[in-house]
Specification:
about 220 residues; five-stranded mixed β-sheet; 18 strands
Amino acid sequence: GQTSSAKYNALLGYVADNIPDTTPDAFSFTAQVGIGLSAMVESNAITISGINTPTSISISGGNYSVNGGTYTSVAATVKNGDKVQLRHTASASFAGSVTTTLTIGGVSSSFKSTTLAKDTTPATFSFTSQTGVRLASVVESNAVTVSGINAPASISVSTGSSYSVNGGAYTTVAGTVSNSNTVKVRHTSSSKPSTSTITTLTIGGVTGQFSSKTVP
């Protein structure tokens, strides 16, 4: 049989193993950046460890899912080995942050998402020059497609010229354009032979020029 000391140690081990422990080991969620505006964001999953009896779980600023189940914001209980994942709706503003805090057995950790920064500086663009155009005639450029922005950008055209967005009416008034919009410019060619007329279009601080040269 066991000695008294061995029995005592075994008893201590049994007692230690059976004392309710509802305080889990620390856990953490990885922050996410560059998220689209108002997008639904899911965190990484964490595994609960360090408890030997079910413990409380609650959340603020979002929802949680246990073992791949339905997302909820209602407080409940979880057990050792359960996997928990969070989600929330990202900010509707550029470079905005949303934080969700999960608390398990009194231990808390936050999940943070940050939306992408505002970008109104488009990729460079250019118009194809035209030569041999008639004197004093209206000349229309090819269309360029606006790219590289995620918010409306300013657009303006040099004096004496006009622009059209997505095939709409030509205008000289400054305005805004969005990503994937198409833009054309037009001007009246010179009344002199072999003379160039240049239109400068500016979008979000980036310029492109359209040139037409009259016949000799």
